[in-house]
Amino acid sequence: MATVQKRKFFTILKYLFFLGLGIVLLWLSFRKLDMTEVWQDIKGANYYWLIVALILALASHIFRALRWNLLINSLNYKTKLSTTFYAVMVGYMANTAVPRMGELARCGVLSKKEKIPFNALFGTVISERLFDLITLMAIIVLVIFFQFKSLSSFLTTTFGPFFSNLASNISSLILFSVVSLLVLVLIYFIIKALKERIKKLPFYQKLREFFEGLWDGVKTIMKLKQKWRFLIYTFFIWLFYAGMVYFPFFLLPETSQLTMADALTVLAIGSLGVVAPVPGGIGAYHFIVKAVLVEIFGVGGNAAGSFAAITHGGQTILNVFVGSLSYFYMGVLSKREKPLNE
Protein backbone atom coordinates (compact mmCIF):
# COMPACT_ATOMS: atom_id res chain seq x y z
CA MET A 1 0.00 0.00 0.00
CA ALA A 2 2.82 2.36 0.94
CA THR A 3 4.58 1.57 -2.36
CA VAL A 4 1.45 2.44 -4.36
CA GLN A 5 1.06 5.72 -2.48
CA LYS A 6 4.73 6.56 -3.03
CA ARG A 7 4.36 5.84 -6.77
CA LYS A 8 1.29 8.09 -6.95
CA PHE A 9 3.15 10.81 -5.06
CA PHE A 10 6.10 10.74 -7.50
CA THR A 11 3.71 10.67 -10.49
CA ILE A 12 1.94 13.79 -9.19
CA LEU A 13 5.31 15.40 -8.40
CA LYS A 14 6.58 14.71 -11.93
CA TYR A 15 3.38 16.09 -13.44
CA LEU A 16 3.62 19.27 -11.35
CA PHE A 17 7.28 19.65 -12.31
CA PHE A 18 6.56 19.53 -16.05
CA LEU A 19 3.49 21.72 -15.65
CA GLY A 20 5.67 24.22 -13.79
CA LEU A 21 8.26 23.99 -16.57
CA GLY A 22 5.56 24.77 -19.13
CA ILE A 23 4.37 27.78 -17.12
CA VAL A 24 7.95 29.07 -16.85
CA LEU A 25 8.42 28.73 -20.63
CA LEU A 26 5.08 30.48 -21.16
CA TRP A 27 6.24 33.33 -18.93
CA LEU A 28 9.58 33.54 -20.77
CA SER A 29 7.69 33.69 -24.08
CA PHE A 30 5.51 36.65 -23.08
CA ARG A 31 7.43 38.51 -20.38
CA LYS A 32 8.93 41.14 -22.70
CA LEU A 33 5.87 41.60 -24.89
CA ASP A 34 3.30 44.38 -24.78
CA MET A 35 0.33 42.34 -23.54
CA THR A 36 -2.11 45.10 -24.52
CA GLU A 37 -0.95 44.80 -28.13
CA VAL A 38 -1.00 41.01 -27.94
CA TRP A 39 -4.59 41.13 -26.72
CA GLN A 40 -5.53 43.54 -29.52
CA ASP A 41 -4.01 41.11 -32.04
CA ILE A 42 -5.98 38.23 -30.54
CA LYS A 43 -9.24 40.21 -30.64
CA GLY A 44 -8.67 41.51 -34.16
CA ALA A 45 -7.43 38.30 -35.79
CA ASN A 46 -9.22 36.89 -38.83
CA TYR A 47 -10.55 33.69 -37.23
CA TYR A 48 -11.85 32.35 -40.54
CA TRP A 49 -8.34 31.00 -41.14
CA LEU A 50 -8.25 29.35 -37.74
CA ILE A 51 -11.49 27.53 -38.61
CA VAL A 52 -9.85 26.34 -41.85
CA ALA A 53 -6.86 25.10 -39.85
CA LEU A 54 -9.10 23.25 -37.37
CA ILE A 55 -10.98 21.56 -40.23
CA LEU A 56 -7.61 20.42 -41.59
CA ALA A 57 -6.72 19.18 -38.11
CA LEU A 58 -9.85 17.01 -38.04
CA ALA A 59 -9.02 15.75 -41.53
CA SER A 60 -5.51 14.79 -40.40
CA HIS A 61 -6.99 12.91 -37.42
CA ILE A 62 -9.35 11.03 -39.77
CA PHE A 63 -6.41 9.98 -41.94
CA ARG A 64 -4.51 8.97 -38.79
CA ALA A 65 -7.46 6.74 -37.86
CA LEU A 66 -7.52 5.28 -41.39
CA ARG A 67 -3.78 4.57 -41.19
CA TRP A 68 -4.10 3.03 -37.73
CA ASN A 69 -6.87 0.77 -39.05
CA LEU A 70 -4.43 -0.65 -41.62
CA LEU A 71 -2.05 -1.69 -38.84
CA ILE A 72 -4.85 -3.09 -36.66
CA ASN A 73 -6.25 -5.09 -39.58
CA SER A 74 -2.79 -6.61 -40.07
CA LEU A 75 -3.30 -8.16 -36.63
CA ASN A 76 -6.45 -9.82 -38.03
CA TYR A 77 -8.82 -7.64 -36.00
CA LYS A 78 -11.67 -5.56 -37.40
CA THR A 79 -12.30 -1.93 -36.49
CA LYS A 80 -14.68 0.72 -37.80
CA LEU A 81 -13.24 4.07 -38.91
CA SER A 82 -15.61 5.97 -36.61
CA THR A 83 -14.55 3.97 -33.54
CA THR A 84 -10.85 4.33 -34.32
CA PHE A 85 -11.30 8.08 -34.91
CA TYR A 86 -13.02 8.47 -31.53
CA ALA A 87 -10.14 6.61 -29.88
CA VAL A 88 -7.60 8.89 -31.61
CA MET A 89 -9.44 11.99 -30.36
CA VAL A 90 -9.60 10.60 -26.81
CA GLY A 91 -5.82 10.24 -27.08
CA TYR A 92 -5.36 13.87 -28.12
CA MET A 93 -7.59 15.01 -25.26
CA ALA A 94 -5.55 12.95 -22.79
CA ASN A 95 -2.29 14.49 -24.09
CA THR A 96 -3.72 17.93 -23.30
CA ALA A 97 -3.83 16.99 -19.63
CA VAL A 98 -0.95 14.53 -19.18
CA PRO A 99 2.06 14.33 -21.54
CA ARG A 100 2.31 11.05 -23.53
CA MET A 101 -0.83 9.71 -21.85
CA GLY A 102 -2.68 9.93 -25.17
CA GLU A 103 -1.06 6.83 -26.66
CA LEU A 104 -2.11 4.76 -23.66
CA ALA A 105 -5.59 6.31 -23.55
CA ARG A 106 -6.46 5.67 -27.19
CA CYS A 107 -5.22 2.09 -27.00
CA GLY A 108 -7.13 1.59 -23.74
CA VAL A 109 -10.52 2.77 -25.00
CA LEU A 110 -10.21 0.91 -28.32
CA SER A 111 -9.07 -2.27 -26.57
CA LYS A 112 -12.08 -2.14 -24.28
CA LYS A 113 -14.53 -1.33 -27.06
CA GLU A 114 -13.36 -3.80 -29.74
CA LYS A 115 -11.85 -6.54 -27.51
CA ILE A 116 -8.37 -6.18 -29.03
CA PRO A 117 -5.34 -6.91 -26.77
CA PHE A 118 -3.95 -3.65 -25.38
CA ASN A 119 -0.31 -4.64 -25.85
CA ALA A 120 -0.86 -5.40 -29.56
CA LEU A 121 -2.56 -2.03 -30.06
CA PHE A 122 0.22 -0.24 -28.22
CA GLY A 123 2.72 -2.00 -30.49
CA THR A 124 0.95 -0.61 -33.57
CA VAL A 125 1.12 2.88 -32.06
CA ILE A 126 4.88 2.52 -31.47
CA SER A 127 5.27 1.43 -35.10
CA GLU A 128 3.13 4.36 -36.26
CA ARG A 129 5.07 6.89 -34.20
CA LEU A 130 8.43 5.58 -35.41
CA PHE A 131 7.28 6.11 -38.99
CA ASP A 132 6.09 9.63 -38.12
CA LEU A 133 9.51 10.33 -36.60
CA ILE A 134 11.19 9.26 -39.84
CA THR A 135 8.80 11.54 -41.78
CA LEU A 136 9.55 14.46 -39.45
CA MET A 137 13.30 13.88 -39.87
CA ALA A 138 12.85 13.98 -43.66
CA ILE A 139 10.97 17.30 -43.38
CA ILE A 140 13.70 18.71 -41.13
CA VAL A 141 16.35 17.72 -43.71
CA LEU A 142 14.35 19.51 -46.44
CA VAL A 143 13.94 22.57 -44.25
CA ILE A 144 17.68 22.67 -43.49
CA PHE A 145 18.46 22.35 -47.21
CA PHE A 146 16.14 25.15 -48.34
CA GLN A 147 16.55 27.49 -45.35
CA PHE A 148 20.17 26.78 -44.42
CA LYS A 149 21.33 30.39 -43.96
CA SER A 150 18.39 31.46 -41.81
CA LEU A 151 18.45 28.27 -39.76
CA SER A 152 22.20 28.30 -39.13
CA SER A 153 21.96 31.81 -37.69
CA PHE A 154 18.95 30.81 -35.57
CA LEU A 155 20.60 27.64 -34.23
CA THR A 156 23.86 29.45 -33.48
CA THR A 157 22.05 32.16 -31.53
CA THR A 158 19.67 29.79 -29.71
CA PHE A 159 21.81 26.74 -29.00
CA GLY A 160 25.36 28.15 -29.27
CA PRO A 161 25.75 28.74 -25.50
CA PHE A 162 24.47 25.22 -24.76
CA PHE A 163 27.04 23.55 -27.03
CA SER A 164 29.81 25.77 -25.67
CA ASN A 165 29.03 24.58 -22.15
CA LEU A 166 28.80 21.01 -23.44
CA ALA A 167 32.24 21.25 -25.05
CA SER A 168 33.79 22.66 -21.87
CA ASN A 169 32.39 19.70 -19.89
CA ILE A 170 33.25 17.00 -22.45
CA SER A 171 35.25 14.96 -19.91
CA SER A 172 32.24 14.77 -17.58
CA LEU A 173 30.02 13.76 -20.50
CA ILE A 174 32.42 10.96 -21.52
CA LEU A 175 32.62 9.73 -17.90
CA PHE A 176 28.82 9.71 -17.61
CA SER A 177 28.51 7.78 -20.92
CA VAL A 178 31.10 5.18 -19.86
CA VAL A 179 29.47 4.66 -16.44
CA SER A 180 26.01 4.33 -18.04
CA LEU A 181 27.34 1.76 -20.52
CA LEU A 182 29.01 -0.24 -17.73
CA VAL A 183 25.77 -0.23 -15.70
CA LEU A 184 23.80 -1.52 -18.72
CA VAL A 185 26.38 -4.26 -19.35
CA LEU A 186 26.28 -5.22 -15.65
CA ILE A 187 22.45 -5.40 -15.71
CA TYR A 188 22.62 -7.57 -18.85
CA PHE A 189 25.00 -10.10 -17.24
CA ILE A 190 22.99 -10.17 -13.99
CA ILE A 191 19.79 -10.94 -15.92
CA LYS A 192 21.64 -13.58 -17.96
CA ALA A 193 23.03 -15.24 -14.82
CA LEU A 194 19.62 -15.24 -13.10
CA LYS A 195 17.66 -16.16 -16.23
CA GLU A 196 16.41 -19.53 -14.94
CA ARG A 197 15.33 -18.08 -11.59
CA ILE A 198 13.55 -15.19 -13.31
CA LYS A 199 11.61 -17.65 -15.46
CA LYS A 200 10.16 -19.22 -12.30
CA LEU A 201 8.77 -15.91 -11.00
CA PRO A 202 4.92 -15.66 -11.11
CA PHE A 203 4.82 -12.54 -13.27
CA TYR A 204 7.42 -13.74 -15.83
CA GLN A 205 4.99 -15.49 -18.15
CA LYS A 206 2.51 -12.57 -18.11
CA LEU A 207 5.35 -10.11 -18.79
CA ARG A 208 6.64 -12.27 -21.63
CA GLU A 209 3.17 -12.53 -23.19
CA PHE A 210 2.75 -8.77 -22.90
CA PHE A 211 6.02 -8.04 -24.74
CA GLU A 212 5.32 -10.70 -27.37
CA GLY A 213 1.98 -9.03 -28.10
CA LEU A 214 3.70 -5.66 -28.13
CA TRP A 215 6.23 -6.91 -30.65
CA ASP A 216 3.43 -8.35 -32.80
CA GLY A 217 1.94 -4.85 -32.93
CA VAL A 218 5.28 -3.24 -33.81
CA LYS A 219 5.80 -5.75 -36.67
CA THR A 220 2.47 -4.84 -38.31
CA ILE A 221 4.11 -2.16 -40.45
CA MET A 222 6.34 -4.87 -41.99
CA LYS A 223 3.38 -7.19 -42.62
CA LEU A 224 1.20 -4.56 -44.30
CA LYS A 225 -0.41 -5.69 -47.53
CA GLN A 226 -1.41 -2.13 -48.45
CA LYS A 227 1.91 -0.32 -48.00
CA TRP A 228 1.14 2.30 -50.65
CA ARG A 229 -2.13 3.17 -48.92
CA PHE A 230 -0.20 3.55 -45.65
CA LEU A 231 2.24 5.95 -47.37
CA ILE A 232 -0.62 7.92 -48.98
CA TYR A 233 -2.37 8.30 -45.62
CA THR A 234 0.93 9.44 -44.06
CA PHE A 235 1.41 12.00 -46.85
CA PHE A 236 -2.04 13.48 -46.24
CA ILE A 237 -1.54 13.55 -42.46
CA TRP A 238 1.59 15.67 -42.84
CA LEU A 239 0.15 17.75 -45.68
CA PHE A 240 -2.75 18.71 -43.42
CA TYR A 241 -0.28 19.40 -40.60
CA ALA A 242 1.53 21.84 -42.90
CA GLY A 243 -1.81 23.44 -43.82
CA MET A 244 -2.62 23.77 -40.10
CA VAL A 245 0.43 26.03 -39.82
CA TYR A 246 0.19 27.80 -43.19
CA PHE A 247 -3.42 29.00 -43.19
CA PRO A 248 -3.24 30.58 -39.70
CA PHE A 249 -0.48 32.85 -41.08
CA PHE A 250 -3.39 34.86 -42.53
CA LEU A 251 -4.77 35.45 -39.03
CA LEU A 252 -2.51 38.47 -38.63
CA PRO A 253 -1.11 41.03 -41.12
CA GLU A 254 2.42 40.52 -39.73
CA THR A 255 2.49 36.82 -40.64
CA SER A 256 0.36 36.89 -43.81
CA GLN A 257 3.41 37.21 -46.12
CA LEU A 258 4.91 33.89 -44.98
CA THR A 259 4.90 30.97 -47.44
CA MET A 260 4.22 27.23 -47.34
CA ALA A 261 7.99 26.63 -47.15
CA ASP A 262 8.02 28.85 -44.05
CA ALA A 263 5.11 26.83 -42.67
CA LEU A 264 7.17 23.63 -43.05
CA THR A 265 9.98 25.29 -41.09
CA VAL A 266 7.61 26.27 -38.27
CA LEU A 267 6.07 22.78 -38.38
CA ALA A 268 9.44 21.01 -38.21
CA ILE A 269 10.88 23.06 -35.35
CA GLY A 270 7.53 23.66 -33.62
CA SER A 271 6.99 19.89 -33.42
CA LEU A 272 9.73 19.86 -30.79
CA GLY A 273 7.43 21.94 -28.61
CA VAL A 274 4.55 19.51 -29.09
CA VAL A 275 6.62 16.46 -28.06
CA ALA A 276 8.10 18.21 -25.02
CA PRO A 277 6.96 16.51 -21.77
CA VAL A 278 4.71 19.38 -20.68
CA PRO A 279 0.88 19.14 -20.58
CA GLY A 280 -0.50 19.94 -24.03
CA GLY A 281 2.81 21.48 -25.13
CA ILE A 282 1.93 24.58 -23.10
CA GLY A 283 4.82 27.01 -22.88
CA ALA A 284 7.20 24.87 -24.94
CA TYR A 285 5.13 25.35 -28.11
CA HIS A 286 4.76 29.10 -27.51
CA PHE A 287 8.47 29.51 -26.76
CA ILE A 288 9.70 27.62 -29.85
CA VAL A 289 7.16 28.96 -32.37
CA LYS A 290 7.67 32.54 -31.20
CA ALA A 291 11.45 32.13 -31.41
CA VAL A 292 11.22 30.71 -34.97
CA LEU A 293 8.92 33.50 -36.19
CA VAL A 294 11.04 36.25 -34.62
CA GLU A 295 14.57 34.96 -35.21
CA ILE A 296 14.16 33.33 -38.65
CA PHE A 297 11.36 35.28 -40.34
CA GLY A 298 11.69 38.66 -38.63
CA VAL A 299 8.10 38.77 -37.36
CA GLY A 300 7.54 41.23 -34.50
CA GLY A 301 7.58 39.72 -31.01
CA ASN A 302 4.01 40.74 -30.16
CA ALA A 303 2.58 39.29 -33.39
CA ALA A 304 4.64 36.10 -32.98
CA GLY A 305 3.35 35.67 -29.43
CA SER A 306 -0.22 36.29 -30.56
CA PHE A 307 0.13 33.75 -33.37
CA ALA A 308 1.44 31.09 -30.97
CA ALA A 309 -1.31 31.81 -28.42
CA ILE A 310 -4.16 31.69 -30.97
CA THR A 311 -3.02 28.54 -32.79
CA HIS A 312 -2.22 26.65 -29.59
CA GLY A 313 -5.49 27.75 -28.01
CA GLY A 314 -7.51 26.69 -31.05
CA GLN A 315 -5.92 23.25 -31.20
CA THR A 316 -6.38 22.74 -27.45
CA ILE A 317 -10.08 23.68 -27.56
CA LEU A 318 -10.63 21.37 -30.56
CA ASN A 319 -8.88 18.42 -28.88
CA VAL A 320 -10.71 18.86 -25.58
CA PHE A 321 -14.14 19.40 -27.17
CA VAL A 322 -14.04 16.63 -29.79
CA GLY A 323 -12.09 14.37 -27.42
CA SER A 324 -14.75 14.79 -24.72
CA LEU A 325 -17.56 13.95 -27.14
CA SER A 326 -15.58 10.94 -28.36
CA TYR A 327 -14.98 9.73 -24.81
CA PHE A 328 -18.68 10.10 -24.02
CA TYR A 329 -19.56 8.08 -27.10
CA MET A 330 -16.95 5.37 -26.43
CA GLY A 331 -17.81 5.14 -22.74
CA VAL A 332 -21.60 5.48 -22.79
CA LEU A 333 -23.38 5.25 -26.14
CA SER A 334 -21.19 2.56 -27.75
CA LYS A 335 -21.92 0.08 -24.94
CA ARG A 336 -25.14 -0.74 -26.76
CA GLU A 337 -23.19 -1.89 -29.82
CA LYS A 338 -21.69 -5.36 -30.07
CA PRO A 339 -17.85 -5.35 -30.52
CA LEU A 340 -16.72 -6.43 -34.01
CA ASN A 341 -14.17 -8.91 -32.64
CA GLU A 342 -16.49 -11.04 -30.48
Plain-language structure description:
The chain contains 15 helices and no strands. By secondary structure, the chain is an all-alpha fold. It has one domain. The longest helix is centred in the last third of the chain and has 31 residues, at 301-331. The chain is globular. It starts with a helix and ends in an 11-residue tail after the last helix.
Key words describing this protein structure:
about 350 residues, mainly alpha, 15 helices, about 80% helix, globular
Secondary structure blueprint with pairings:
Blueprint lengths: L1 H29 L4 H10 L3 H26 L7 H17 L3 H14 L3 H29 L1 H21 L1 H24 L1 H5 L4 H15 L1 H4 L3 H20 L13 H16 L8 H12 L5 H31 L11
Helix pairs in contact: 1-14, 2-15, 3-4, 3-6, 3-12, 4-5, 4-15, 5-6, 6-10, 6-13, 12-13, 13-14, 14-15
Which range does the strand content fall in?
under 5%
How many helices? The count is 15
Give the H and E element order: HHHHHHHHHHHHHHH
| Mean pLDDT score | 79
Q: Helix content range of the residues, please?
A: over 70%
Gap between N and C termini, in Å?
Answer: 36 Å
Largest sheet, in brief, is: none
Query: Based on CA inertia axes, which overall geometry fits?
Result: globular
How would you classify the helix and strand content by structural class?
mainly alpha
* Low-confidence regions: none
Number of domains: 1
Q: Would you kindly provide a brief summary of this structure?
A:
With 342 residues, the chain is an all-alpha fold.
